[in-house]
């Protein structure tokens, strides 16, 4: 049965795709010697819209789910076989397909390495950042895992976009902001003291004043880790400025909730005891 199926796949005229290359050039661009070529052709054909109508309406989602495993099997030297399929899936009209790719883009980056990631995955990653919340949450949950694989200059470009994660399609989606706070804690290790103070500090203060207590509690930990990180940096002026801002914004706040926030931040890791004895 397998032999007959592969024979059918290999001779299926639906496998041809529209491109600027001739059919022969298109076929050669997807040739490899790791797995049977007919098997790879069958996998690549899963993005064909006619397959969704005749085989399975969610076949593109299955294709997206399996793509990191296929990429790992073929190796980065054969990424050219999957690149077009990946880009097709990344622009699929179904958000579930794009969401699946968003949740696994960091795994694919590890497989491909920094050069292929910068050239082929970063543009897709940037598109996911502007997508629906259902897709954005995929890149947000693994934001640190992806950014740590980029070179420092490219990584710093995303500092300007972190603020956009505070805005969601549904303001009641507090788990989105909670995940942002969790990721910012991890991102502290990837950026300099100045970057933390200039870009991450405003976001952290905004999250500390969130309406949902679960978000605030994670944000208290974020601020405490931020103070610790700045204190250990060679430039001590940032931590002094941050502590002064904490006192002015929360400790001397007219509202009891603000003063309570200051106490909670100090309580998380006993900052004042650690830093000032």
TrEMBL record:
Keywords: Repeat. GO terms for cellular component: cytoplasm. It comes from the Eukaryota. Residues 11-30 are annotated as: Disordered. The keyword Repeat applies. One of its GO terms (molecular function) is protein phosphatase regulator activity. It comes from Spizaetus tyrannus (black hawk-eagle). This is PP4R1 phosphatase.
């Amino acid at each position: 049965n397998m032999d007959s199926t592969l024979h059918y796949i290999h001779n299926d005229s639906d496998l041809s795709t529209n491109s600027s290359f001739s059919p022969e050039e298109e076929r050669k661009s997807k040739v490899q010697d790791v797995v049977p070529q007919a098997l790879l052709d069958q996998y690549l054909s899963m993005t064909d819209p006619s397959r969704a109508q005749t085989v399975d309406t969610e076949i593109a989602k299955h294709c997206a789910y399996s793509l990191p495993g296929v990429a790992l099997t073929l190796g980065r030297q054969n990424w050219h076989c999957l690149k077009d399929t990946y880009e097709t899936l990344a622009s699929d009209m179904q958000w579930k397909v794009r969401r699946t790719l968003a949740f696994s883009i960091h795994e694919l980056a590890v497989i491909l390495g920094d050069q292929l990631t910068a050239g082929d995955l970063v543009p897709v990653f940037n598109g996911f950042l502007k997508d629906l919340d259902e897709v954005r949450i995929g890149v947000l949950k693994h934001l640190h895992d992806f950014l740590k694989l980029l070179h420092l200059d490219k990584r710093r470009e995303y500092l300007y976009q972190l603020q956009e994660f505070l805005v969601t399609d549904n303001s009641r989606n507090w788990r989105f902001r909670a995940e942002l706070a969790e990721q910012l804690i991890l991102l502290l290790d990837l950026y300099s003291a100045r970057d933390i103070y200039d870009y991450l500090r405003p976001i952290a203060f905004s999250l500390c004043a969130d309406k949902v207590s679960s978000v605030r509690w994670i944000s208290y930990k974020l601020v405490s880790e931020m103070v610790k990180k700045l204190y250990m940096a060679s430039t001590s002026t940032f931590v002094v400025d941050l502590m002064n801002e904490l006192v002015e914004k929360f400790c001397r706040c007219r509202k009891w909730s603000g003063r309570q926030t200051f106490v909670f931040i100090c309580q998380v890791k006993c900052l004042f005891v650690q830093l000032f004895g």
